[in-house]
Amino acid sequence: IPSIDATSLKQLSTDPTGPLHHRAVAAYNPASTFKTLISLAALSNPKANFNPRTHINSPGAIYGAGRWWKDWYEPGRGSINMHTALQWSTNTFYYQLAVRTGIDSIVNTANQLGFNQRLLVDEEGQALLKGESKGIVAGPEWMNTQEDRKFAYWASQKEKDPNFKFPRTWRQRWTDGHTMNTAIGQGFTQVSAVQLTTMMSAIANGGTIYYPRLIRAVKGYDESGSEIITEYPIRQRGNLEIKPEYLKAVQEGLRAVVTGGTGRAAGSQRYAVAGKTGTAQAWAIVNGQRVKDNRALFNGYAPYDDPKYAITVIIEGGKSGGSDTGPIVKEIFEKIARLEEGSSIDLVYLSPAVGHFRGVETVNPEDQIQPLEDYQPLPEAVEGSETPQRRRSFWDRLFNR
Question: What whole-number distance in Å separates Cα of residue 241 and Cα of residue 70?
Answer without folding.
Answer: 31
